[in-house]
Amino acid sequence: MWSESDGERENEIMSTSTSNSEVVRMDERGIACVPGPGQQPTSLQFIKSKGIHVGDQFVSVTQTVHNNEVVKGRLLGLELVSAKSTRKLRCSIAVFVCWVLVVASGLAFFIFHYVLAKKLPLDLDIHEPWYLRRGDWQAMLPYSRKFLNLPVKNVLIGHSATEYCDEKYACIRLMLAIQNDHLRRGWDDIGPNFLVSGNGIVFEGRGADVFPVMMVDWNRRSIMIMFLGDYRYDASTIAQFEHVSVLLEELVKKQVLTPDYTVWASCQLSPHTISPGIKVLERMKLFEHWKQTNVSLCLKSYLPFHRYIWKVLKNTSRTERVTCAAAFAALLTCVTLIAYFTAVAKAPSEDSIDIAPHEWNITRDMWLAADANNSLKTTDFEPLRLVIVQHTVSSVCHRFIICAAELRTLQGYFLKNLKHDIPYNFIIGNDGRVYEGRGWSVIGAHTLGYNSCSMGLGFIGDYREELPAHAEVTPLMMERTQMLLKDGVARGVLHRDFKIVGAKDLRHSDSPGSNLYNAIRQLPYYDHENIFHGKNCEQIRAMFQD
Question: Quick check: 454 and 426 in contact, CB under 8 A?
């Protein structure tokens, strides 16, 4: 039976009735069929119908059935329920908010306490020529630091068991070598708090209040001082002990040490070892606070290897091994968070101040140049008429420590690959300082055909303006260059009427780069007439003799 509103669908729906049944044919739009009184359908034929229900109430099987009794969800393991259980819902939300506050508080504590609240080592009030801070000996930055709980009451004296040194720059080289060795061992920095050379120079190692690394079980409660050398054989000096005594007095004033601190030789606390050596041990009585307990156990020679290994194993306690394992496990859970905040939180650098041994004139010793044979001289052509400018085509540097390292790298390249010293007589750094290369009156290796009768001047960096990132010439660099040239005239190495040119004026080359080339063309002694092009040294000398 159809309603009258189904008019247009009559062609699509066919009905056949018998005396006791009704057969209905329907399309997929699904209309209702209700049998008449006393009639029972014997068959139904459905065409293109996807959702069918036969019974008292028609419900599409594709319809979403919502049971408003219970709506369940999961959030952090807590159950949210429908309006019939609003009290449980409010309780669940409150617990969730509490968890959020706990996690946020923990993150905030970690950020401010462990990342942003970084401290720097304590700087001692010692301003003597024999006391060198980390920047003075060009120390590399530590990988990490731990600070002592001050004050401590122990001072440990040891020796480096390396070569002996009693000259400033030789000792600086040794300090850098020791720091590199300790970094390779995984100590994050040079081991002791302070180190002392043979002539009494005190070098700041880790610093006054930083956790040292020298002796198990004593690191966290001691200040470590290392004498540079092997004092089984090297003689100690009175200056070493006098300067260390001044250092200890300053540590007491700064409340790093307690007034009743005790000085120990390392072998007194770790028996059957050598350090600090018999030559230091003989003078330990010069320290007022030295305690002589267990001196008889100090050895005068090295242990056999198997006994040394056994001693190391004995000094590693079970508690320390368990502590390290627990710390490693905790580190794995926090590594992502720590790595992120370490990258974004920038603590002030202790080496941000540019410190150099001289205001502008840096000798070979000061930048730790390697020894080289520079015996060939330019004296046959002095006073020299020609100064040739080139650029090094290397990385720029704006601080003494970086420039010194860059020069050592350049020198190492030439010594290894070309078997000669750095080719320039002098080098101008981007920090405005003049660095001694081969020096005055030495034949360089900068411009073929002109080395014997010229002075080579190199500028650190690549000055080609056509490059996206090129070095810049600063007024300070040009001022120091002219100071160097005036000094050369005063020494008689340069003629008072000398001329300066770029390497490209004499040979086919891009050096010294367009930026630097334009700068030297502004100098009063630049050779605008290019009188030296195509001439050798003998022809240049003859040209001025006439």
Answer: no
For the ranges 250-254, 302-306, 506-510, 520-524, which has the lowest average pLDDT?
A: 302-306
N-terminal to C-terminal alpha carbon distance within the chain: 133
Whether pLDDT at 273 is above 60: yes
The answer to whether 193 and 207 have CB atoms below 8 angstroms apart is yes
> For residues 461 and 394, is the Cβ–Cβ distance under 8 A?
yes
In the numeric block, the tokens 């968070």 are attached to 337
Nearest to 494 by CA among 378, 376, 388, 385: 385
Long-range contacts of range 186-191, CB-CB < 8 Å, 24 or more positions apart?
187/213, 188/142, 188/143, 188/144, 188/145, 189/142, 189/143, 189/144, 189/145, 190/139, 191/224, 191/226
Q: Calculate the average pLDDT of the chain.
A: 83
Q: pLDDT per residue over 224-238, tens digit each? A: 999 999 999 999 999
CB atoms within 10 A of CB 131: 19
- Report the alpha-carbon distance of residue 219 to residue 294 in Å, rounded: 19
pTM tops 0.90, yes or no: no
Secondary structure (DSSP) of 339-395: HHHHHH--PPPTT-S---SSSSEE-TTTTTPPP-----B-GGGPSEEEEEEEE--S-
For the residues of 217-236, what is the DSSP string, one character each? Answer: TTGGGEEEEEESS-TTTSPP
Percent of the chain with pLDDT over 70: 76
The span from the CA of 326 to the CA of 331, in Å, is 9
Element (H, E) at 248: helix 238-253
Instruction: DSSP for 266-331, please give it.
Output: HHHHSSS--TT-HHHHTTGGGSTTB--TTGGG--SSPPPHHHHHHHHHHTS-HHHHHHHHHHHHHH
- The band of 46, judged by pLDDT with boundaries at 50, 70 and 90, is low
- Identity of residue 307: R
Cα dihedral sign for 154, 159, 165, 166?
positive
Under the banding of pLDDT at 50, 70 and 90, the label for residue 454 is: very high
Residues counted in the chain: 546
- Residue 324 CB contacts under 8 Å (≥ 6 apart), including other chains: none
Burial class (CB in 10 A: 0-12, 13-18, 19+), 454: buried
Q: Quote the DSSP letter at residue 210.
A: B
Question: How far apart (Å, rounded) are the C-alpha atoms in residues 518 and 514?
Answer: 6
CA distance 435 to 394: 15
